[in-house]
Amino acid sequence: MAIYKLLCNLIFIFLLFSNFHFDQCRQYIQITHTFQLHISFIFTYNMTIFEGWSEIRLNYYSESCPNAEDIVKQQVTNLYHKHGNTAVSWLRTLFHDCMVKSCDASILLESINGIQSEKISTRNMGMRNFKYINTIKDALEKSCPMTVSCADIVALSARDGAVLLGGPHVEMKTGRKDSKESHLAEIDELLPNHNDSMMYVLSRFQSVGIDVEGTVALLGAHSVGRVHCANIVDRLYPTVDPTLDPNYAEYLKGRCPHPKPDPNAVEYSRNDLQTPMTLDNMYYKNIMNNKGLLLVDQQLILSPVTSSFVENMAADNGYFHKQFSRALLTLSENNPLSEEFGEVRKDCRFVNSD
């Protein structure tokens, strides 16, 4: 077993760095001086990736539920035309689920029978539209009972939602299983926060196999949706963050007039004022003009590790979409569960009863 784990470690490191351009790696090491820390994240991640890991593949449901992906796509489309913000929610749900241990739909679990829902974490504040995941699940259950996992619904709805928002189509694998437990206790450690340092954010993404270029692209999801004032006010009060464009800061103060906003109040600002419901490179153009909404957004152009990628994505929407597709795919494949450790829930909100 020890030899097996050693071989897995070596293979994992080789594969990880094969996706990392040499010059980027060298620059990353020179600037951060934290290569040992970087390696520790690789080993920490690797110690868990093989435990309970499941093989996922394209067209996993081709025999058991041939219309599964079409059903998801139709439901996502129907919901988008009724509630446009659902498409944004699917992207955010995938991120918040997959970054915490596994793409296993643990974020959908409600607090019941000893389970504490991940939804109560402050890191998940503002998450919404979970009820529509069950709308999609109900449609699948009518066609193929107890076949399609909630984890796959989370992944496929994010894929189809991105297209409806003007983003790229991603060929996504399926076959994930659903977690039987919540990961609430691990959220603060594993899910990067909006005001974390850029080096820490990069290390968190790298721990799930996403390189610097992919991280910059994936943060481009901030091109759509909105942010609650509770996550903005630290840049406005008591003094305005000097990296903010003054006119933009005044606009944000108008949207968020209170230094301590009620987290339950509907007080927010759109991520992107120009194209708020389009997944495009306007996000990067805004950052270059000191109009990044969150601190982590503005840090992308301030950091020498990430700034060149911001400039390239601002100049080329196609390049942004290509890198976004690559990063989203990597994220969606983080440590999927096998049947031994997971299940296919009948109701996405609850673990199956024995």
UniProtKB/TrEMBL annotation:
Residues where substrate binds: P192
Cofactor notes: Binds 1 heme b (iron(II)-protoporphyrin IX) group per subunit. Binds 2 calcium ions per subunit.
Disulfide bridge map: C65-C144, C98-C103, C150-C348, C229-C256
GO MF term set: heme binding; lactoperoxidase activity; metal ion binding
Binding site for Ca(2+) 2: D272, T275, D280
Signal peptide: 1-25
Domain Plant heme peroxidase family profile as annotated: residue spans: 55-352
Cofactor(s) this protein requires: heme b; Ca(2+)
Amino acids binding Ca(2+) 1: D97, V100, D104, S106, E118
Catalytic activity: 2 a phenolic donor + H2O2 = 2 a phenolic radical donor + 2 H2O
Binding residue positions for heme b: H222
Keywords from the named record: Biological rhythms, Calcium, Disulfide bond, Glycoprotein, Heme, Hydrogen peroxide, Iron, Metal-binding, Oxidoreductase, Peroxidase, Secreted, Signal
Source organism superkingdom: Eukaryota
Site, as annotated: Transition state stabilizer: R92
Pfam families: peroxidase
Record-level GO BP terms: hydrogen peroxide catabolic process; response to oxidative stress; rhythmic process
Active-site residues per Swiss-Prot or TrEMBL entry: H96 (proton acceptor)
Alphabetized Gene3D superfamilies for the sequence: 1.10.520.10, Peroxidase, domain 2
GO CC annotations, alphabetized: extracellular region
InterPro entries: Haem_peroxidase, Haem_peroxidase_sf, Peroxidase_pln, Secretory_peroxidase
PANTHER family for this protein: PEROXIDASE, PTHR31517
Purpose of the protein: Removal of H(2)O(2), oxidation of toxic reductants, biosynthesis and degradation of lignin, suberization, auxin catabolism, response to environmental stresses such as wounding, pathogen attack and oxidative stress. These functions might be dependent on each isozyme/isoform in each plant tissue.
Family to which this protein belongs: Belongs to the peroxidase family. Classical plant (class III) peroxidase subfamily.
Protein name: Peroxidase
Species in which this protein is naturally found: Deinandra increscens subsp. villosa
Lineage: Eukaryota, Viridiplantae, Streptophyta, Embryophyta, Tracheophyta
